[in-house]
User: Fold this.
Amino acid sequence: MLKKIAVFTSTRSEYGLLLPLLRRLSADSRFDLDLLVGGSHLLATYGQTIDRIKEDGFVIGALMPFLSERPGPHAEATALSTLSGLLGEHLYRSQPDLLILLGDRYELLAVASVALVGGIPVAHISGGDVTEGSIDNQVRHALTKLSHLHFPATEAYKRNLIAMGEEEWRICVSGEPGLDEILTIDLMTKAEVFAELAVPIDREIAIATFHPETIGNAISPDFISTLIDRLLTRTPYHLLFTGANFDPGGDAINAALENASRNPRVTFVPSLGQKRYYSAIKYAAIMIGNSSSGLTEAHSFGLPVLNVGNRQLGRLANANVIHVPLDADAVVKAIPAALSPAFRTAFSSTGNIYGDGKAVDRILAFLTQSTPERLLMKRSVFPT
Assistant:
């Protein structure tokens, strides 16, 4: 049986999606959790979210400080090199039976590669997905070939994995584990979350997150500033922005948001944390941006979403999502359609395609019937 389970996290969004699984692994005597924390979790400019992990009560197996507060030229390559060294040293000492990764962050390539040469099986959550507007797409598919167990969110993504030659017995369609949290989390009241964020309770909010597009990035500070101007002059909303990730260009986006927050109708919080984020979603009128959260989680709150630009190009979207081009006027123009009773009625009658809140049950059941000896020897079976 796979007993000692290492889990790596480097961003707030990834941690939020992993949280239901981490809680179950930590509480289950069949498993020994080795939590590896690095990346933006350790940086004050991205919210110092290591503090939230500690507040959640987890014992941290190792810290991986591979990012710099002030990255210079070739920062991503330097970060990968640093992470490889830190991780290699830790895994050599700890020797987990399995390493779990979620998503498509570029730093996961270093993590999976170190595990591969160290003879440690890798389980990958959220493989088979498609996001053609960023390098995440290529990273995700590379992680598929470096991994030994797969937990895709949907049957369609399972078919993608099989098309890449992965053996079917290694695949468990689990759904997205982050959705499990939505069913059980004790959300804040509207008064509580609005007061904590210093947002007037009598004004509706639009919640927004923009990450860089890592292929031909068009999410510029100028676009962010223009969009905010259009939203402030043409809509009644208070704008609640969460921070961009640490991809190249993320710092510039966050600087533009910090500057915009001088306006009393704009609030910028680098990281809300899971409870505040889900509470804000519950009471928001609309979500705007290019975060995967809009395509996966927002539907479970009945929230209409405007997915902007190409970052999520090709990814399956729930029925609450309207795709709009990277144009501030087009975004504002699409808002009435997203808020229309007909649109809301249409999507509220559909289920969330990314899961039913039982992903962790499926993942743990699958892990308990797997053995490390069988996992390491991979073969490719390509459909004919």
